[in-house]
Every structure is written in structure tokens, then in C-alpha cells.
Amino acid sequence: MLHATALHTYYGASHVLHGIDFRVAKGETVALMGRNGMGKSTLLKSMLGIVAPRSGKVAILGRDVTGMETSAVIRQGIAYVPEGRGMFHNLTVREHLLMAARAGTDGRRDWTYERVLETFPRLAERLDNLGTHLSGGEQQMLSIGRALMTNPQLLILDEATEGLAPLIRRDIWHVIRAIKQTGIASIIVDKNVGVLLDLADRHVILVKGEVVYDGGPETLKSDSSILERHIGL
Ligand SMILES: Nc1ncnc2c1ncn2[C@@H]1O[C@H](COP(=O)(O)OP(=O)(O)OP(=O)(O)O)[C@@H](O)[C@H]1O
């Protein structure tokens, strides 16, 4: 589905990604892990063309998207929910959702307005509210709902549960599990390692812009020293 090879990314003179290989298979849930500042967001942004990698390649569904504008990369079937949610202050919940609606790259329209509202009943009760007048949890639901309206094949969630109350967080994880069941692939960055170990098919751990672990959850569960060393648990 997505395949990045030998990515090197710099911010000015600062070398942040050191030749990263990263892939996501169709329908696969990949947890991207690592301490603060290790390069997780930079890797996501490099693959999406938000930050230009100095070298390396990114392919989506076999198509080379290296160097493409972010909007063109996204149109290959990707929905990106960045840290911080990005609501428009002058649009209502209804407008945010309808504006995002489109068929998937394969023509699918599984995620309709009605289905998104069934998935997030709280949004259905707030259709006329401005996005910026929602609670943090509701904004996050709207962000994910908006992403689903594009019928993506790959959903990227960067810190989707950050700063949310435990009950709201639980609701968001519930929805993320439901999305996984529908066969949408995902890349999830999140600090809740316990949830990720149960949810993800594969885990990739970054340390200083390099991949130090790429494998299933079984090894991480049976050998706790890997998480202790690289995540600090
Ligand atoms: N726009 C930028 N300009 C310069 N340096 C940056 C920029 N964004 C990130 N960095 C630096 O690049 C490194 C990787 O940051 P990045 O945000 O990718 O890490 P992260 O693993 O996503 O961490 P976090 O969980 O804190 O977001 C850090 O040293 C950070 O300070």
C-alpha cells in the first residue's frame, strides 16, 4: 500500500531522518513508536510531501509519489489526521463533514455522511456547532470523521488521543478498532503503548531518525527490554 525507501530528511543543517525504510501493507495497522523528538512526525510529513526529504523514495499503491504536492499524495487514497486537529473556525460540523466527502480511489463510498454520524453520535447532536466550539474530544472525532468521509485506503493518526479525558479516549480507540475491522490500513502514533500492543499488526520504533525495531507485537510483549530501552517504559 505504502512503501518508503531510504528516506533522509533535514531541517536546515539538522539531519533528522537517517535512511528510513517504512512500509504498510493493504489493511495493515502499523504503530509508529519512539520517544519525543525521534522523528515520527517528520517521517509522516516526509511521506506526505509536507516536508521534502533530501533523498529517498515514496510509493503508494505502486505509484511513485516522491516530490509530489501533498494534495496529490493524499488523493492516492490517504487521510491524514495531524496533531492538533485543524478545524476551520467558520465551518459547522455538518460543513466540515460534507466538504470532505468523496469516493475512494477505488470508487468505494463505504463511509457516507450517515455512517460517520452513526459512528460518532456526539457529532450528530452538534451538526450546527462551529468546529472550534467543540470540546477537544469532539474535535478529534470530527477530525477522524472528516478523514473517513474521503473513503481512504490508509488512515494516518498522529497523537489522536493526546490530551483527552479517559472516557473520550476509550471512545476514540473503540472507533479506531472499528475502522480497522473495515479493512482500512492505518499508521498510528500514540503514547498509549499498551493499547497499541493489542491493536497493531506491526510496530516500528524510531530512535534518532533510525528504525531500531520493525516487527509484530509478540516480541515486544515477550521481551520487555526492547520497550524499556527505546520507549522508556
Ligand atoms: N520544523 C522544524 N524545524 C526544525 N526542527 C524540527 C522541526 N520539526 C521537528 N524538528 C526536530 O526534528 C526532530 C524530530 O522531530 P519530530 O517532531 O519528527 O519527532 P516526533 O518523534 O514526532 O516527536 P513528538 O512526539 O515530540 O512530536 C526533533 O529534534 C525536533 O526538534
Secondary structure: elements and pairs:
Layout: E1 2-11, E2 14-24, E3 29-33, H1 40-48, E4 55-60, E5 63-64, H2 70-74, E6 78-81, H3 93-100, H4 113-119, H5 121-124, H6 136-148, E7 154-158, H7 166-181, E8 185-189, H8 193-199, E9 202-207, E10 210-215, H9 217-222, H10 224-230
Parallel strand pairs: 3-8, 3-9, 6-7, 7-8
Antiparallel strand pairs: 1-2, 1-4, 4-5, 9-10
Helix pairs in contact: 3-6
Adenosine-5'-triphosphate binds next to strand 2 and helix 1.
Q: And the CATH topology? A: Rossmann fold
Under the CATH scheme, which class? Answer: Alpha Beta
Please give the largest β-sheet: 6 strands, mixed
Order of helices and strands: EEEHEEHEHHHHEHEHEEHH
Organism: Paramagnetospirillum kuznetsovii
Family: Belongs to the ABC transporter superfamily.
Domain ABC transporter: 2-233
InterPro entries: AAA+_ATPase, ABC_transporter-like_ATP-bd, ABC_transporter-like_CS, BCAA_Transport_ATP-bd_LivF, P-loop_NTPase
